[in-house]
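Usage

Read records sequentially. Each one opens with the input sequence:
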Amino acid sequence: MKLNVKNIRYLGPDDWRVLTATEMGSRNHELVPTALISQIASLRSGNGVHKCISNLAKIGLIAKVKNAKYDGYRLTYGGLDYLALHTHTKASTVYSVGNQIGVGKESDIYVCASETGRQLVLKIHRLGRISFRTVKANRDYLRNRSSASWMYMSRLAALKEFEFMKALRMEGFPVPEPIGQNRHTVIMSLVDAFPMRQISNVGDSASLYAELLSLIVRLAQYGLIHGDFNEFNVLVEEKTDTETHEVTLVPTIIDFPQMVSIDHANAEYYFDRDVACIKRFFSRRFGFTSDEPGPFFKDSIKTIVKRLDVEVEASGFSKRMAKELDAYMKEHGVDGDAGELEGGEDEDESGSDHVSDAESRHSEPTSDTPNGSPPAVEDAKPATALTSSMTILDIRDNDPLPSLSEIKPTPVPTISTKAAKAKAGWAI
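and closes with the structure output:
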């Protein structure tokens, strides 16, 4: 579903209480009874609850279930979106939401802005989008959470991405700056960059290739494996030095819900798959093939700098959460896009579903070179030493985001809230 925030301004305090009550009741009810919603909301007026329920149902934030055995409602993804945005607004993290800039298999990407006008990225995790297509075949692996498991998994994915992004950012990895997280949403900085899949040519593909492989190795030395390290999840930013006018390509890594620890049972498989994705893309797109084998998983973990995987689990994303999310990824086949890139360059060009995380975001480059890297990485230039010959020659889809100054503000309604609700048919 698409995010529609036009009705959020018309919700009153009682509406938010009823919507929150429905969310709380969804934790152990597939269909939250109306009586339970009234009890949790604790509104003074008995008829007020039913009026709020009617308002919320009309705009699709809650919904009835056909052929239900009792009177009740379930929380929709739209309702969860509103609750998350309401929390971000109260925390002064998000002030306005703009256009959608990416749609993926299990997430939606929007550009948003803070109160100061800073452009940010809103990522909404929607796990279950693919699984709903075959809901009869794979109902849901969490039997005791059959009612809200999709939303629960989306929460875990958002929490995991936020926690790993914070840890990687603190260690100097080129990732977007994490701003905030609530429920199934993550707010991060905007990078003025292009997804690598949109770049047709670079001047020195060998240096960019070596830099990306060094990032894979460095992640392993910090106890992590990306799990979906490919052209869809690598942004390339072109920076020009004001004094020397030298052009530098700075990669940024995005999309972390599928990231695993080096202690994972399939850690070596995911590591080799990340390496193979980069090698295959550079061979097909840039015609570059390295003479050196590797890097290899066993060689990369010989030098462990820090165990970020342990730190993240201790800071909020627990082992139980990791096991639940990993089981979901394994059962429903959403542990990365790499397995779908076997079809060749034609399939690569038409992969519109993968554009979800190919948004523009901002982060600082890293100049660290991993110790104990394989030969192909050891001989490479440092991350900030890319030459001016690496200027991007062609961008396949150059559609820059509009400036905030170009966007006309929505006029403030001249009628009262009560009259607006009556005009929209909300009055009962």
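Summary fields computed downstream for this record:
- The longest strand covers residues 96-103.
- The chain has 13 helices and 15 strands.
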